[in-house]
Structures are given as C-alpha cells and as structure tokens.
Design goal:
By secondary structure, this protein is mainly alpha-helical. The chain has 4 helices and no strands. The chain starts with 7 loop residues before the first helix and ends in a 5-residue tail after the last helix.
Length: 100
C-alpha cells in the first residue's frame, strides 16, 4: 500500500521536471504550427482560369520550374530546410540506442 501523500506542490514540481527539458522543443513546434496555419489561412488559393496552351504536354514542367525559382524562392527554401530537418530526425530516430 502506498503511504506517500502527494501535495499540490509535489505534483507541480514533478510536472515541471518532466516538461523542463522539452520546453524549447514545444515552443519551436508551436511557432512552426502558427506559421503554417497563418500561411494556409492567408493564402488566396487562386483557381486556374484557362487550360494549358500545349494540350500534348500538360505537365508544364518549365512553367513550374520558372515559378519555383522566381516567385516562390523563399517558400521553396523554407520547405527544403523543413524536409532536411525531418530527414535528419528520421535518421536519428532510426539509429536508436546502438548509435549513442
């Protein structure tokens, strides 16, 4: 039988000790979530008004490349950093305890 009685202060202290090393990660995750939500809500999401000019090649790779490297340079670079950090995190998790 457990004889130890928990007071409110002990519970708060144990919760604080649990979250203390994780606070920075949670703040960064919340900031990233806020940026993503503002970006999604603030985007106008324009619709296509007309069909592509060349019906044989509807992929329009040249147009996509031109847009990525002219209009959407900053979002493209931010996305590359996010994907790179996800890849590094996946490698770290996959390595497990043997690599430490």
């Amino acid at each position: 039988m457990l004889n130890k009685q928990f007071t409110i202060m002990q519970i708060i202290t144990s919760v604080y000790r649990f979250f203390r090393p994780r606070i920075l990660g949670m703040v960064i995750a919340l900031l990233f979530l806020a940026i993503v939500l503002v970006s999604v809500i603030g985007t106008s999401w324009p619709a296509i008004d007309q069909l592509p000019q060349n019906l044989d090649d509807q992929s329009n790779i040249k147009g996509i490349g031109l847009l990525i490297f002219t209009e959407f340079v900053v979002p493209f670079e931010i996305l590359s950093i996010v994907l790179l950090s996800a890849m590094v995190g996946a490698i770290y998790i996959a390595k497990g305890e043997a690599g430490r």
